[in-house]
Amino acid sequence: MRLRNVVLALAAATGLAAASLSISLAAVPPPQPGALTKYDITGTYVSGLSSGGFMANQLHVAYSGLFQGAGIFSAGAYDCAQNNLNTALFACMDTLQPRKTPAELEQLTRSRATAGTVDPPQNLSGDPVWLFHGSADDTVDRAVNDDLATYYRDFGARVAYNNTTAAGHAWISPIGPNSCGSTSSPYVSKCGTTDPVREMLGHLFGQVNAAASTLSGKLVQFDQNQYASGGDAASISMGREGFAYVPTACETGPCKLMVTLHGCYQYFGLVGNALMDKAYLNEYADTNNMVVLYPQATTMTGNPRGCWDWWGYQSARYPLKSGPQMAAVVNMVKALSNGGQAPTTTTPPTTTTSVPQCVTASNYAHTVAGRAYVTMGQTYALGSNQALGLWNTFTTSSIRQSSPNYWVKC
């Protein structure tokens, strides 16, 4: 997390309405190895923090026919980054550089819908959207979060926007281990007696029952490889393990599904079960018939902090329906609601926005786009490990993708 600090890490890798309540502590149960199986899902929602917030918005927009609402902590409007690392850092977190206006991003969304690479944005009209930005958050600028609110409102979504809490850059929970203004691991903070999680779920669902004091459900640990294109989650910067909290009631009756996406520095391999244990979602899941899916990103070249792909470090298709991480998460959603099996076709279909057969670019551009990686100043094609020469903006090479996430020289 602490996305503004990702400048240093990425430079090294690439060369550059509150409610008071009594709080119950109900620790998340130990994970049980298993598989995603079918449940009677009556509605699908997505939430996330920071890079997970950007990803939540991308999923909601690209798959607006599937997701019925979103809850987002500290993020910006759809495809603010425009497949550019500098834009992500200095225009979509800081505001040191100009960024596309909400109106421009709305038109981009319409154009992509016409091309069939995202769902029609008319689906967003009437969807509940809950947004949060802490007044002590100096990681994502308030103006960027404001753009997200404007983007959604212009498409007719029902937006609730909490921007007055003195919170840092974190998921805010009544059982968070950190102080309200903190921006530090594990990036789950408590702000007095307020409960933004209840506020979020109440806006998304219309009403919400009080949280459980003791969890009755199970935490399933499943293999994410079967939901990733090519069966290799690591190649798209996703961890091998994913998790789903399933209340007992959902085993036999209808339930909603909440997809919750962690932020940078917050993936399971770094902070363990901290988000799953302290986000206060499972407690509401038990009393509101809600399965919670916790997909996991991880690190790779160009992504040393385990962020979700919202600027194009892994694929230029990152904000589209065919984006590798996007498709993997949706495959998990479909498994939970359509029979518990991975789709038979896992390779994203070719579209007019796909990467061309041969891509000629600087070695710097190849690494930023996730087609290559750099070691000791030398550039190598992702997958094949073929040497491409010096890593800089002057040396160019031509490579093509022969299979998912496997690049060779042309």
Q: Could you please describe the fold and organization of this structure?
A:
This protein has 410 residues and is of the alpha/beta class. The protein contains 11 helices and 17 strands. It has helices at 6-14, 51-62, 85-90, 102-115, 142-154, 196-205, 268-271, 274-278, 281-288, 324-337, 363-368, and strands spanning 31-33, 41-49, 70-73, 128-132, 158-162, 171-172, 188-189, 218-223, 241-246, 255-261, 290-294, 359-362, 372-375, 378-381, 387-390, 396-403, 406-409. The protein has a 9-stranded mixed β-sheet, with helices on both faces. It has a 3-stranded antiparallel β-sheet with strand order 12-16-17. It has a 3-stranded antiparallel β-sheet with strand order 13-14-15. Strand 2 (41-49), helix 2 and strand 3 (70-73) form a beta-alpha-beta unit. Helix 4 (102-115) packs across helix 5 (142-154). The longest helix is centred in the first third of the chain and has 14 residues, at 102-115.
